[in-house]
Amino acid sequence: MDVDDHVRITERLIQSVEIVAAYVLVLLFAVGVFDLGLTIFDLVRTGAITQTSEVIALIDTVLLLFIIVEIYQTVVAYTREESVVRIVIITGIIAVTRRVISFHPDDHAAQEALLTSAGFAILLAVLVGALYIVRKTPTESGSLH
């Protein structure tokens, strides 16, 4: 058995682990959607669905589910040896948006809250700018993303 044979075996092993990771992400997403449904049902039943804090918590959960989907897409694209740059940027945008929604300035000193808010704004602007650039850049096939 030469080196190339060993490399092929390890590549297949890594690809198998990536597929297992994709199945785990699908399972996590399914559990999360089921839990979200139970939470919405409970909030409607108790009337708490109209409370702002509960709606924000629901949005936070939905964004977390979107992050799981984006990570799944990254794993699948990586397994297929496709570009993952756009997916990673979108995941970053969703993650930062989730942090912005759950950010409570009252929990921090005024200057710390201002710096944190400015950091979030700069990070979002950079990520959106990067997404714009990636979408405007032609792919190898000549088409835009």
From TrEMBL:
Subcellular location: Cell membrane
Pfam families (UniProt xref): PsiE
Keywords assigned by UniProt, alphabetized: Cell membrane, Membrane, Transmembrane, Transmembrane helix
InterPro entries per the UniProt record, alphabetical: P_starv_induced_PsiE-like
The protein, known as: PsiE domain protein
Transmembrane segments: 20-43, 55-78, 84-101, 113-134
Lineage: Archaea, Methanobacteriati, Methanobacteriota, Stenosarchaea group, Halobacteria
Entry coiled-coil feature ranges: none
GO cellular component labels: plasma membrane
Membrane topology, from the record: Multi-pass membrane protein
